[in-house]
Amino acid sequence: MLTLADTSTAPLLTIDAIDVHYGAVQALYGVSLDVYPGEVVSVLGGNASGKSTTLKSVLGLVTPTRGRIVLEGREIQGLAPADVIDLGVASVPEGRRVFPAMSVHENLLMGAFPRRKEKAAIAQDLDEVFVAFPRLAERRSQPAGTLSGGEQQMLALGRAWLRRGRLVCIDEPSMGLSPRFVDAVYEVLFRWKAAGQTILLVEQNARIALELADRAYVLQHGHVALQGRAADLAADPAVQKAYLGAA
Fold this sequence. Notes:
Helix content is 38%, strand content 25%. It is of the alpha/beta class.
């Protein structure tokens, strides 16, 4: 079981000096980062720091105006989101983005759509999701739009797990959740990490993100301000003051 990043190999994902613009407004300035197989990398920062834009660039939701994004040796900048997903990427988007009129079970199966011919494996993965999230098992026939915010986040995580992606991109999983649901979500993410899942995580809750991550990048105003091992950043007085609530 792979639990630590193997940095002797090539990165699974490389973001190489990308700029991103929204019209005349520049959101990212030469942002670079690497994610190695089996590694959890967190991208931290305050509002308008560029962290979600970084993730959206990987997923094809925005296109860099300069630089490259390389997934397993293939340049993917400019690909449509569906094409990125087809290459083995799973997404847990900000705000959950479940299909409200579809049942919990149907939402989960949407995550497995790219591997829909693997019926036995999908059935096993569904069982794993229902064990991990008993609330979803209880509500499997219920429309997703009737779930609470925390339950929808669980559903979004389960849907991503059904994709069985080589890389899971997660955007603000704790946003808007009660502490109890945040703990439940991160309990699952810690299990994914222990199983060797490669994760790129964007998170405003720096404390819990640094507990989960192997390495982290801190963005400020679209620039990478700090980077390093998560434990080192958690101990950095500047990070503590800016993001961890230390005096």
